[in-house]
Write a structure and sequence with these properties.
By secondary structure, the chain is an all-alpha fold. The chain contains 16 helices and no strands. It is found in: Cell membrane. It is a multi-pass membrane protein. InterPro entries: EmrB-like, MFS, MFS_dom, MFS_trans_sf.
Length: 488
């Protein structure tokens, strides 16, 4: 049984290590959007390249995050976590010195692999190291400090972009890794799952990532070469079908399909797809809208988006407590509708928009909607399956959210009619942004309808979230015990 106490020096070192590691991945997911206009200008990149700068990272992260958790169970959670941190830092260095958009996109894909190794490992190390009496508080501190990192991330990113330059958004990860790795090797105990054995479901992981990549490519390229885009999208669908077939045949697959026999679990993941597609698309385009159309600097744009994160950090725990009392159906219905209202309020944000009169009200309504829905969504995911599968259920839900975000970033510019040079033409971008917000609001309303129709209160005694203060805006928190399924 793990016996490290939180108050001990070792406990504090373990907490520092996990916060540093998870913050690297969290910061990149929030900061890069702010840097996109400057990246585009410096590398002479078109809109598709900016989409790939975001999505190359998300494709590998979403496709491999379940495999990353299983690798830690098999080979040692500290070992895989450290490998992930080093991998992420090296890829970040490549991003920071990229001479062109093609190298940057390739390096971002490598970053996603590192993120898939370290993201599940950070929480798994806490769960495997701390005494059960201290584990809940340790997870709470981990999520709270992570929320603070998410809150300051856009501000720091904007300052770096306007000051030393956008490359330092990536280069900053190198010293963080240099601090994290030796602390982990010296102070964090190794742990693993003795029951994990057999062969890994590498084929399933590869097929999942390939399916996401091909569909994403098809959506991004649809406006330029329809024939190539159609072939790519069809190949992506074929890869997705093959993924399902492989997972069905495996004795113990990466993603056991029988988990979707739970109507509640399936419904909550549908809500997740709708909600995080809208949020992923919004945060990608909003940072561009504020800079390209409204005229904000990168620092001002990053700071402007802080209210949503601050509200999440301050109120998520209370929202979760309320949902425990009244059930998840109402929060998962009202929350997406509030988010949809916030996005429709963004239609007022155009040339000459006032921050207190136009931008802030939209972000406050959006933030309140996110506060209302995120904690109940996580609790309902955990409560819709057996306790033994809570870690697996959380991993699937987290991967679904990230996949929804990357598809939205690929599809929204196409649906909204953004051309290759859209971010260089304020009037054209403004009109397309308005159309995109309507699409995002529609996705949120669809999620609310699914929640109202299907979601019900989980049974008594189901597993509850440990990450009570969550400030991430692009995916729900990973929760539950480490993934213990051996990927045979």
């Amino acid at each position: 049984m793990p016996d490290v106490r939180l108050a001990s020096p070792q406990g504090k070192w373990i907490l520092l290590t996990t916060v540093l590691g998870s913050s690297m991945a969290l910061l990149d997911s929030t900061v890069v959007n702010v840097a996109l206009p400057r990246i585009g200008r410096d590398l002479d990149a078109d809109m598709a390249a900016l989409q790939w700068t975001v999505n190359a990272y998300m494709v590998t992260l979403a496709g491999l995050i379940l495999l990353g958790g299983a690798l830690g169970d098999r080979f040692g959670r500290r070992k895989v976590f450290v490998v992930g941190v080093v991998w992420f830092a090296v890829a970040s260095l490549l991003c920071g010195i990229a001479p062109n958009a093609e190298v940057l996109i390739a390096a971002r894909a490598l970053q996603g692999v590192g993120g898939a190794l370290l993201t599940p490992g950070s929480l798994a190390l806490i769960q495997a190291s701390f005494h059960p009496d201290d584990r809940g508080r340790a997870v709470g501190l981990w999520s709270g400090f992570g929320g603070i990192g998410a809150a300051v991330g856009p501000f720091v990113g904007g300052w770096l972009v306007d000051g030393p330059g956008w490359r330092w958004v990536f280069l900053l990860n190198v010293p963080l890794a240099a601090l994290c790795v030796p602390v982990a090797l010296r102070h964090v105990p190794e742990s693993g799952d003795g029951r994990a054995h057999g062969r890994f479901d590498v084929l399933g992981a590869v097929l999942g990532a390939v399916a996401l990549a091909l569909v994403t490519y098809g959506l991004i390229e649809a406006g330029q070469d329809g024939a190539v885009a159609a072939v790519s999208a069809l190949a992506g669908v074929a890869a997705a079908v093959a993924f399902v077939a492989v997972e069905r045949r495996r004795a113990e697959p990466m993603m056991p399909l029988d988990i979707f026999a739970s109507r509640q679990f399936t419904a909550v993941n549908l809500v997740t797809l709708c909600v995080y597609a809208a949020l992923g698309g919004f945060f990608f385009l909003a940072a561009l809208q504020l800079q390209v159309v409204v005229g904000y600097s990168a620092l001002a744009a990053g700071t402007a988006l802080l209210p949503t994160t601050v509200l999440m950090l301050l109120l998520s725990a209370r929202s979760g407590e309320l949902a425990d009392r009244i059930g998840p159906r109402l929060p998962l219905t009202v929350g997406p509708l509030l988010c949809a209202a916030g996005m429709l309020l963004m239609l007022r944000v155009g040339p000459g928009a006032s921050y207190p009169g136009d931008v802030l009200p939209a972000l406050l309504v959006l933030g309140l909607g996110m506060v209302t829905l995120v904690a109940p969504l996580t609790a309902t995911v955990l409560g819709s399956v057996d306790v033994a599968r809570a870690g697996l259920a959380s991993g699937i839900n987290n991967a679904a959210a990230r996949a929804a975000g990357l598809v939205a970033v690929a599809a929204l510019p196409l649906l909204a009619g953004m051309g290759e040079e859209a971010y260089r033409e304020p009037a054209a971008f403004d009109a397309a942004f308005d159309r995109a917000m309507v699409w995002c609001a529609g996705a949120l309303v669809a999620g609310a309808l699914v929640a109202a129709a299907v979601v019900r209160r989980p049974p008594p005694g189901c597993k509850r979230p440990e990450c009570l203060r969550h400030a991430g805006v692009t995916s729900p928190p990973l929760e539950g015990e480490p993934v213990r399924k051996r990927l045979a």
